[in-house]
Amino acid sequence: MHKAVPMLVASLLIGACSAGSTVPTADTALTTTTTALPTTTAIVSPGGGLLAFGAFGVRFTPKGGGDDVTLTTDPFYEAVEYLVPDRDGGIVYVHRVTPMAWLPGSVLWLPGGDAEPRLVVAGSSRTQLIPRGIIEVAGARFLLYIEWDMDTRQGSAKLKPLLAGAPVTVWAAAAESVQDATTGGGRILLQLVEGFPSDRCRLVLVDAYGLEVDAPGLPDCAEPGDPRSFQLSSDGTEVWYIDGRGERLVVQGLDDPAEVMELPIARPHGVRYDGNDTAVVSTDTGPLLITRSHGALAAEPIAVVEGAAGLLPYTGTIALTADARLGTGLAEYPCTTRLPALPEQDLPPAVAATRRSIYEAIANCDWVALRELATAQGGIHYAVAYEPGLPVPYWIELMRSGNDILGDIATVLTLPAIEVDHGDGAVSWVWPAVAGKEEEARTDADWQALLPLYTQEEIDAIRYGPEGYAGGFELIISLDGTWVGAFILSV
């Protein structure tokens, strides 16, 4: 049913233990780079607290009061998507987009006391990597993560030494997919589903070698349509979980089914747990801080952190140097060579100024200026595919994958434009003009004006396709000079 690999884990332990604190091998080395990034504030938080992560970077809120400290990101390291403490003063995390040679979605590790991260697991366009915790085996620390295959829609649980060594599979099966995983006390709790999508779910408790562990108190995974979220305690003896349909948080002892604590919670849908006596439960109305004291559970609201992808409690120390950063100290950014001359156009002064500023930022490969233009006054608004106000990381990813979006933007600004009155007092200018016209008003000349941007075959496909120009590229600047649109749809 599953694939257990004790010999592989044992061989990894030999390498991990002998590695000690030596510098990682070539597979984890950082890439040569060129552009300096900002430093950050020192963080030493011995008592634990809360970690918030998202587009802003990582924010540490010490337990018992004290000033919040944010480990900021470079402007282009947007959206820290996943994060787990490494249990030794550092953090392991995933950026949605990175301008480095690391592929998007790579797992990075910033050890306590280090200034720059190390690559743990390289990302891939065909997989999603989700770090779920740190497990210690024979004195060595391993990262537990889920590898989600985008083609097969299957997830597997894997372990990777933080220092050096290849990843090994803890659990993988053709009939079942690992939906989630959590670790504590040398154990791993796996949440499995049969295929994707599926309502059939079960929980399995295993050791680091993938061998099942008897747990009389192991709860049921879920009834169909009943969302649940599971977290193991640090000693592996109990599980904290959300019963979505029952609207409750449950603390269940794994060795004794009778060891149960419950706390009613309205509309819960996720729990993050420090492994001891503190958890954060996400609900429809905001996060709750859950504490256990003197045999009872209590809940109190937590302020919503704007832009946060996640919020989790941690116990222990987070210790980072004064110059620690989430991105490496230097970075490389892609540029374009597609720079057709920018013709003069009869535009309102504010619109003309923004048009020229966008073009010059692209010509100078000035991603900072481009980001400021794209996020001014609330940012570019998108119909599909993107998050409002955060286009630049996605554009970097496109450029790195060979899609010359900068060249597209520079080129579309050279095409004819049209003023569009939206009827509610809002007026904007749209490039190309064909995108701002009604279908019956579009002329052959409008369509042929697209030749600098598309081939004739692509123009015909857009013109006669079911979407019309909704399938093409357009750029919009409002009358006050705010860059409000850059749509890239089906083409």
Task: Describe the protein in words.
- The model is unreliable at 1-40 and 382-389 (pLDDT under 50).
- It contains 7 helices and 31 strands.
- It has helices at residues 6-19, 349-363, 367-375, 392-400, 405-412, 444-448, 456-464, and strands at residues 35-36, 43-45, 49-54, 57-62, 69-72, 80-85, 91-95, 107-110, 118-121, 127-137, 140-149, 154-161, 168-171, 177-184, 187-193, 201-207, 228-232, 238-243, 248-253, 260-264, 268-273, 278-283, 288-293, 296-301, 308-314, 318-320, 330-331, 418-421, 427-431, 473-478, 483-488.
- A 4-stranded antiparallel β-sheet has the order 5-4-3-25, with no helix packed on it. Strands 6-7-8-9 form a 4-stranded antiparallel β-sheet, with no helix packed on it.
- It is elongated and about 75 Å long.
- It folds into 2 domains: 42-321, 6 Propeller (Neuraminidase); 349-488, no CATH class.
- The chain starts with 5 loop residues before the first helix and ends with a strand.
- It is mainly beta.
Concise structural overview:
The chain is mainly beta and 491 residues long.
Q: How many distinct domains?
A: 2
Structural class: mainly beta
Rg (CA only): 26 Å
CATH architecture of the largest domain: 6 Propeller
- The CATH homologous superfamily of the largest domain is termed TolB, C-terminal domain
N-to-C CA distance: 43 Å
Uncertain regions spanning at least 5 consecutive residues:
1-40, 382-389
Mean pLDDT: 81
Main β sheet profile = 4 strands, antiparallel
Instruction: Tell me the CATH topology of the largest domain.
Output: Neuraminidase
Bin the helical content: 10-25%
Q: Count of DSSP helices?
A: 7
Q: What is the overall silhouette?
A: elongated
Number of extended strands = 31
Spatially, the strands of the biggest sheet line up as 5-4-3-25
CATH class of the largest domain: Mainly Beta
Strand content: 35-45%
